[in-house]
Amino acid sequence: MVNNPASSIQRNDFSSDRRVLELLSQTFPTVSAASTEIINLEAILNLPKGTEHFIADIHGEYEAFDHIVRNASGNIRRKVNEIYATSMREEDIRQLCTLVYYPERKLEELKESEEDMDDFYNVTLHRLVRVCRSVSSKYTRSKVRKALPREFAYIIEELLHEEHDDRDKQKYYSRIIETIISTGQADAFIIAISHVIQKLSIDWLHILGDVYDRGPGAHIIMDRLMTYERFDMQWGNHDALWLGAAAGNTCCIANVLRIALRYGNMATLEDGYGINLVPLATFAMDAYADDPCSVFMPKIAANEEVDEKTRSIWAKMHKAIAIIQFKLEGALIDKRPQWGMAERKLLNKVDYTKGTVEIEGMTYPLTDTLFPTIDPDDPYRLTDEEASLVKRLRHSFLVSDKLRRHVDLMLSHGCLYTIINSNLLFHASVPMNFDGTLKEVEIRDGRRYKGRELLHRIGMTMRAAFNDDTPADDKDFAIDYFWYLWCGPDSPLFDKTKMTTFERYFIADTSTHKEDKGAYYTLRDKPEVCNMILDAFGVEGEHRHIINGHVPVRVGKGECPVRADGLLLVIDGGFAKAYHNTTGIAGYTLVYHSRGLQLVQHEPFTSTEEAISTSADIKGTTQIVELSNHRQRVRDTDKGRELQGQIEELTRLLYAYRHGILTERVTR
C-alpha cells in the first residue's frame, strides 16, 4: 500500500521538497504520468528477487569461469530439468544445455551428425523458447526487452508470450518458427536466444577479488566482464598488485612478473597486455648464463608441455626479476619508514662469502648462492643494466591500452567492500585487535581509521593513483601504497605479520616460511565477532552475512565454508589449478535467489573443448545455506527500498499537482 504523504507535506516546509519535485515533474509532467509510474513500480516490487551469483579467487582460470557464467552455476541445467525431465532423454537434455552454453560451436558440431537439420531446428527452437520463457518469468517485460538482441527483439518477445490455450495464436507462433527456418535464420536465432537465456539467468554477478595471477587468462576474464552491465568487484590482493603495476609501481611490476614466471604463465602479460618480456629474457640469459637457477624452475601444470630450453630461460628470468624485486622493495621500505617494514630487508643480512643469511638471530644456509648482480657492500643498488630494464618494463605497463581499459573497468565497478541486500562483501579481512575490537590503522600523516572508514579511505587512496587532478605528492604516495596493500601487515588485503617470499626461495627450513595471520582470521568464526563487524559497517537485516574469499577452504581436510553459525561464508574453493590439491575441489559459487542461499561446490573443469564435444558440464554439489520462509520479492531488496523511495517522491508529486502547489505540464 502506498502511504499518503499529505500529512508530512503539511507538517514540513514544502520549499525543501519543491526543487526535487520540480525536477521530477520534468520527467512526469502530469498526474497521469506520475500515477502510471507508481503503478509500474508497485508491480516491480512484487516480482521475485533476481538471482545473485558470488564468485571469488578466479585467478585467471578463464575457461572454468566462462563455463560457470554460461551455465549460471548449474541454474540453467536445473531449469531445463524442471521443464523436460519427464519428456526428454538425459543425453538430449545435456545436448540442449550445451547448446545454450556454447551455441556457435555446438551448432557447428551438430551439423556434422544431424541428418535433418530442419527438423532439428524446429524442435530445438520450440524448446529454447520455453526455457527462455522460464528464466525470464521473474522480470518485467521492459527488463527482458532490454536483454534482447535488436535484430530478433520483436520475434523473441512475441514467442515469450505465447498463449497455450489459443489455437489461432499457436498457429501464429508455429509460423514464426517455420519462417525463421525457411529464411536461413535458425542458427542466428538459436545463438541469440541462447545468449538471452545466459544473460537472464544471472541478475547480478559479484566478483570477490583476485581475478589475476596463477592461471593463464585473467585478461580474457576481464574482457568477458566488459560485456556485463550488472556486476561489481571487490578488489583482492592480486588485483591491487596489478593496479599498482598499471600505475607504474616498480615493486608491483616486479612481483607481477615474478608470479607469472613462477607459474609459467606468460599469456596474460604477453598475449593479453602486450608486455614486452624480451628485454628481461635477454638480460637474464646474459647475467645468469652459467647459473642453472634450479630454485627458480617454474611450477608447470602436469598437463602442460613446456620444453627444457623454455623452462631454463623462464627460470633465469624468474631469478633475475626476483633479485630486482628484493632490491626495489628495499628502496621503497627506506622511502616509507612509517610502514615499519625494515625487518623485511634481507639482502643486507646475507653473508655472500659463506652463503648464509641471518634472520631474527638465527643463521641459515642459502639454497642458492650465485648473485652476480648484487654488490655485497651495496646490495640494494640496481646495476645499470637492471635499472635500464626496470625503466623499460615500467614503460611497457604504462603504455598498455588494454591494461588501462581493464583498470578503468576495475575502478568503475570495483571497491574494497560492498554492502548489498544485507550482505557485506570484501575479499580478505578487516584489521582487528586480538581482543576482538577493530584495529585503528594509519594510512598517512598520523591519521588513523578503522572498520568501514578504513576500507573507504584505502579505496580512495587507490583511486587517487589514477586521477589526473591528484596532487603530485599524494599521487606518489598512492602509487607506492599499492605495494603495502600487497604485503603490509595492516593491509586488509594481506593481514599477516610478513610475506616470506625471500625465505621460500632461499631457505630450506620451512619454519622460516611461516606467515602469522592477523586477528580477523583467528576471531572471524565467532558469531559475536561477525555481528560486531556487521554492526560497524551498518549492515542491517534479519538474515545478514559476511562473504569473503582469499583463504582457500580445505574441503578435503574437513573445513566448511559456512561459519559463525551461518553469519560468515568463505567462498574461496580454489578455482586456480594450483590450489586443487589444497582444497580438494575447484571453486565455489554462492547463489542467492528468491528462496534463499545455496552454495555450489564445483569439481575440476577439464576444458571447453570437452564440454562441447561430450556435452559434459561442470559437476557440482549444491548445499542449502539458508532458506527463506517466504519467497523474497524485489521489495525485500536494496533495489526495492530504492524503488519505494521513488514511489514516495512520486506520491508527493501527485499531491503537489492535485493541491495546486505545482502545475501539470499539459501539452496540447
Description:
By secondary structure, the chain is of the alpha/beta class. It has 28 helices and 17 strands. The longest helix has 28 residues, at 308-335. Mean pLDDT is 91; it is low at 5-12.
Envelope shape: globular
Distance between the termini: 33 Å
Major β-sheet annotation: 7 strands, mixed
Query: If you average the pLDDT, what whole number results?
Result: 91
Show unreliable segments: 5-12
Radius of gyration, whole Å = 29 Å
Which helices and strands occur, and which strands form pairs?
Elements: H1 6-11, H2 15-27, H3 31-45, E1 52-55, H4 62-70, H5 75-84, H6 90-101, H7 103-110, H8 117-135, H9 141-147, H10 153-160, H11 167-182, H12 186-201, E2 204-207, H13 218-225, E3 231-234, H14 237-247, H15 250-262, H16 267-272, H17 278-287, H18 308-335, E4 350-351, E5 356-359, E6 362-365, H19 384-398, H20 401-413, E7 414-415, E8 417-420, E9 423-426, E10 441-444, E11 447-449, H21 451-464, H22 472-487, H23 501-506, H24 519-523, H25 527-536, E12 545-548, E13 562-563, E14 568-570, H26 580-583, E15 588-593, E16 596-602, H27 608-614, E17 620-627, H28 638-658
Parallel strand pairs: 1-2, 2-3, 3-7, 9-12, 12-14
Antiparallel strand pairs: 1-15, 4-5, 5-6, 8-9, 10-11, 13-14, 15-16, 16-17
